[in-house]
Amino acid sequence: MVATDQPLAAGAVTSTQMAGEEIVRELTDRIREAIEVAEKRAAEIVRRAETEAQRIRAEAEAAASRRLDEVQKALDDLQGRLSGEARSEVTPGPVTVPEPAPTPEPGPEPAPPPAEADSPSPEPANGGGDGQEAAARLVAMKLALDGTAREEARRQLATDYDLADLDALLEDVYSRVGS
Q1: Comparison of pLDDT for 132 and 127, the residue scoring more
Q2: pTM: predicted TM-score of the whole model, two decimal places
């Protein structure tokens, strides 16, 4: 090989320079293609994420709306119960119970066993008077079975009935129900 110390003429390009420029062009094109593919993939990922976010948001809003409706209904029921105007329940008023027919006087009865003598009687000894106590007992039993607090039942019964010993009646009813 002969080395020349003469410079190349202006505008003359060597084959090495041409090959280097071709490599740079090819690499540039490949990089551009890779960037375009990456941008398309990124755009697709963003589109999918936005679609998924919209779906999740719609489901959450629907669930929240359903839950809000349930809470509103429960609140309405509770307000109805507290005001004594429950929508789903009938609030019983005073009940008139007919007087029992007089029974013939039987002979002397044996004394009851001690355990029975101490237990409270579900009916008053005088046959119920005007039926107020029997009606109040029935309402108290319903309230106790429905889970009404004893104080709330006491307020309601005191409003609707005139009873001599409301506390004893409530104690009897709630002890039988187990509340």
Answers
A1: 132
A2: 0.31
